[in-house]
Design brief:
A hairpin with a 7-residue loop joins β1 and β2. Strands 1-2-3 form a 3-stranded antiparallel beta sheet. By secondary structure, it is an alpha+beta fold. The model has no long low-confidence stretch (mean pLDDT 86).
Length: 140
């Protein structure tokens, strides 16, 4: 009785270690840029009909959810690349992850800044601001 061994596919992620390290470095680079540029400060005073002046200062900070999403993208792409058995699949997974690693913080920063600077400050007096916005109100 002879048994034939079926060849098991060899994972290719080890051969792509330079690309994986490059993905990690680029992800770190974009995470740092997001942390630096997704900030804003806005202030002013509102005078309602009763005559009491209400002044506010709002500070936008980077959202930790963006960093978490970037880490999840990196980990999932590593998992998919480690299970891949074809070079085209590994390349595609790493290429898509690299695109997501710069696109996510760029879009999140743009949306956050536009929303922050175009929002009506009077609305924040009645409802709480988003979690990554610190809001201080002083009334005269």
């Amino acid at each position: 009785m002879t048994t034939t061994a079926t060849p098991t596919p060899t994972p290719l992620a080890g051969a792509y270690m330079p690309e994986i390290l490059s993905l990690a470095k680029r992800g770190l680079f974009w995470a740092i840029l997001y942390g630096l540029f997704a900030r804003g400060v806005r202030g002013g005073c509102l005078t309602p009909a009763d005559g009491a002046t209400t002044c506010y200062t709002a500070t936008l900070d980077p959202s930790p959810l963006v960093w978490l999403a970037m880490a999840v993208i990196f980990v999932i792409s590593l998992g998919r690349a480690s299970r891949a058995t074809e070079t085209t699949v590994v390349s595609r997974v790493l290429r898509r992850a690299a695109t997501a690693m710069w696109l996510l913080p760029l879009v999140a920063a743009a949306i956050g800044l536009v929303t922050f600077f175009t929002a009506d400050p009077a609305a924040w007096a009645d409802t709480p601001p988003p979690p990554n916005v610190r809001y201080e109100i002083t009334t005269d």
